[in-house]
Description:
Layout: H1 4-16, H2 24-32, E1 53-58, E2 61-68, H3 71-81, E3 88-92, H4 98-106, E4 109-114, H5 117-129, E5 135-139, E6 152-161, H6 166-169, E7 172-183, E8 193-202, E9 205-215
Parallel strand pairs: 3-4, 3-6, 4-5, 6-7
Antiparallel strand pairs: 1-2, 7-8, 8-9
Helix pairs in contact: 1-2, 2-4
Amino acid sequence: MTDYKRARENMVESQIRPNGVRDPGLLRALYRVPREVFVPASLRPLAYAEEHLAIKKLNGGARHARYMMAPLMLTRLIDLLRPQPSDVALDVGCGTGYSTALLAALTESVVALESDPELAEAAAENLTSLGIDNAAVVQGPLAEGYPSEAPFDVILVNGSVDEVPQRLLDQLGEGGRLAAFVREPTAAIEDTFGYAYSYEKSEGWVSGQLEFSGGAPLLPGFERQQGFSF
């Protein structure tokens, strides 16, 4: 039988700390939030492995599955956001709710946006089961964000994108931060390699910065629009 508490401790001490994550609040959240709750039963022994875990098959089979981001990749993205206790967060593509649970431990409140009805229902159930009451799961297209609750202090894009839509950046408040993995322009749909970027709004302008290489599976709705050339 898997000792998930031990696995959680090992994840933090052998995967997260050695890769530069030092924020004490984030480390506490990683110790406390049971990642295995958010993973399909058949994959729970892999809950703390450094790999992206499929949580939902979409039309087209495995290559279009939705994934839970690998722990280190997710943690480093959250670390870029510098979450504060007074922040209002938007979790874009919350999946089954693990990332939302981490953000809820670090911020005042979280809007967890999910486009898939089954995943949204699972996320709501998982968060409720853990007594997390400062997060609300909402449904809608991921690339649209959730403008009715904007502006946000932090926006986590929970996967890779071909480009960050301006409409998401527009939902940042003054001083707000967004983090996402952005893929190479020539990447095939199944490619996960890319670069983590952080964005920050200051005096009404949003600037972006490349932070580190890494990646995650592509989120639906963030594919690069194909055009015609003559």
